[in-house]
Design a protein that fits this description.
The chain has 238 residues and is mainly α. The protein is built from twelve helices and two strands, in the order H-H-H-H-H-E-E-H-H-H-H-H-H-H. Helix 7 packs across helix 12.
């Protein structure tokens, strides 16, 4: 098994768990502001730093679809004639608050030690450091979504919880680009991909190709650091 295949579920477990823990805070923010979350909630790490170019937008929305009518209607995002998307002033302020709400929830969630069984937030400084190395390395191998996501936006004095939650969200787009490239190379559309069962030989070959394309980013870490990364992820609760 490649390292990319080994670490993927560990990253997804921690990130998806963090997002689930953040849901009440994010919903409360929506109720407070009257603004609805959209692409800015899942791609704040890139949108707060720069406009999302057309190719990055197509990549980011390849699975969920690119209906941005709600963002346009409430005035949180705008699009230019070239198909580049950016936050409006209102959207920028709202998205900053979304990032902070997610980070605050992550801080609370990851601080759990379950009576000392887990080290909890003590692992965050080192995890943030290793994620930073990976994001830098991905500049050479990432596709359109990863290029749009990095370098990530982090406010001055950002907590380690904000750094980790932000950097991990961006890192997942390296594999996302790899996956899209793999099924496109196999001549499939996203609908045809979804129709394949996990055991289908073609689906298996696509996942293997995805791992191959995702693997180079982890070569920026030493073997010891790769095992350390897995251990740091394991130290955080679901």
């Amino acid at each position: 098994m490649s390292y990319a295949a080994l670490v993927r579920p560990a990253i997804d477990r921690v990130y998806i768990g963090m997002r689930a823990a953040a849901r009440p805070r994010l919903l409360a923010l929506t109720e407070q502001t009257g603004l609805r979350q959209g692409l800015n909630s899942s791609f704040y790490f890139g949108l707060l730093a720069r406009p999302l170019p057309a190719d990055g937008f197509a990549a980011v929305t390849a699975y969920a679809g690119g209906d941005m009518s709600d963002e346009l209607a409430q005035g949180t995002m705008a699009v230019d004639d070239a198909g580049n998307w950016s936050l409006t002033g209102t959207g920028h302020t709202f998205t900053l608050a979304l990032q902070q709400a997610a980070a605050d929830a992550a801080q609370e969630h990851w601080a759990q030690t379950f009576r000392g069984a887990l080290p909890g937030e003590a692992v965050l400084p080192r995890l943030a450091e290793l994620l930073g190395v990976l994001l830098k390395a991905g500049e050479a191998t990432g596709g359109p979504a990863f290029r749009a996501a990095t370098p990530v936006y982090e406010p001055a004095g950002a907590s380690y919880a904000l750094q980790v939650s932000t950097r991990m969200g961006a890192l997942r787009h390296h594999r996302g680009d790899a996956h899209r490239a793999a099924w496109a190379a196999a001549g499939l559309t996203v609908e045809q991909l979804r129709a394949l069962s996990p055991a289908d030989p073609l689906r298996v070959s696509i996942e293997q190709d995805t791992n191959r394309r995702d693997e180079p980013i982890y070569q920026a870490l030493t073997e010891s650091e790769r095992w350390e990364l897995l251990g740091l992820l394991a130290a955080l609760p679901n």
